Amino acid sequence: MTATRTTRRAWQAFGALMSALVLVVGAFSAPVQAHSTDDWTAVSGPGTSNCRYPDSSRTGVYADFDICWSGSTVWVRAFAMDTVDGDGWCGIAQISYLIDSNRNGVYEDHRHVRSTETDCNAPFGDLSGWYRSNYPTTQLWGRACVGYSNGDSYACDSWR
Ligand SMILES: [Ca+2]
Ligand SMILES: [Ca+2]
């Protein structure tokens, strides 16, 4: 078995684990399912100009994010671009964050991960719509991943 295949097996196992931990929501195609919080509502734009704009890339993918917040309300949209045509991989923009789902003032300590946008056709990227958090939300990070057309990631950049 090659190292690459071993790595891929490990990622597939990780993906299965994540599938057991997180949840698919609305327009977000996500490798997730666990407890049924619907974390996001589609909206026309952010309710604040207090934003940051991280970007992330690795071979085969570029992603950037508009992340805005007012208190514990967060707005986010993501751009994903497949940068290598014909390699069999899609480009995925993923986000990760913490929520206070029971609104007791304490963020639960397990991270939610969502694939917010997936682009499988180089060179033009896809931009998601805006989403507003339904629960108090904090520490929202984004990263670029290469992966599958259903949004499951295979290999990712660091969180930004
Ligand atoms: Ca590709
Ligand atoms: Ca809580």
TrEMBL record:
Keywords: Signal. Residues 1-34 form the signal peptide. This is Secreted protein. It comes from Micromonospora echinofusca.
